[in-house]
Specification:
Blueprint (H helix, E strand, L loop, with lengths): L1 E11 L2 E17 L24 E18 L2 E14 L2 E20 L4 E19 L4 E3 L3 E10 L2 E9 L6
Antiparallel strand pairs: 1-2, 2-3, 3-4, 4-5, 5-6, 6-7, 6-8, 8-9
Length: 171
């Protein structure tokens, strides 16, 4: 499995923008589709039925672009990600798009003589309007998943807790 990333951040009068270029891939995958001939018609791959000369190799690559825009509304930190990618697999090509929205609300509730603090609560909705369109006409869609999290601090120790939920939440 290969993964390469390039992250760029820039400011303008609208605020801060982040851009990520991402490549995910697996190289040298054996393609054995044409390397087996079931000569005795038993449906079981047997050593003598494999033609190793017919094994070829291919790569699977996905090139992605993520544009992020973090902003703040009063005390609430908010962000939006736009995600676009191209997936190549053998003779098939897919274009994928979707976006995420996140909100982080500061709490700063303190307990136990100010030594225990619930510092924030956040929610992220991932893969909103997600769609992957293949060049053979197949269209894949995903349900929206959500992540709810919080941070708890005790003196110099910090614990982050996240819960992911993705069952039957559709728009």
């Amino acid at each position: 499995f290969n993964s390469e990333q390039l992250y760029i951040s820039f400011d303008n009068k609208l605020g801060n923008f982040n851009l990520a270029f991402i490549r995910l891939g697996v190289d040298n995958i054996p393609n054995t589709i044409t390397s087996w001939n079931d000569e005795n018609d038993n449906g079981i791959v047997e050593f003598e039925e494999i033609d190793y000369a017919n094994i070829s190799y291919y790569n699977q690559n996905e090139l992605g672009l993520v544009l992020s825009y973090p902003f703040q509304i009063k005390q609430i930190l908010t962000g939006i990600n736009l995600k676009v990618s191209r997936l190549d697999l053998l003779d098939y090509i897919a274009l994928t798009y979707g976006f995420d929205v996140g909100v982080n609300y500061p709490l700063k509730y303190k307990f136990l003589n100010n030594s225990l603090e619930f510092s924030n609560v956040a929610i992220v909705f991932k893969d909103i309007l997600y769609q992957r369109e293949w060049n053979n006409g197949t269209v894949e869609q995903k349900l929206i998943s959500s992540i709810i999290g919080s941070s708890i601090k005790y003196k110099n120790f910090s614990l982050n807790i996240d819960f992911k939920y993705n069952k039957n939440f559709e728009i």
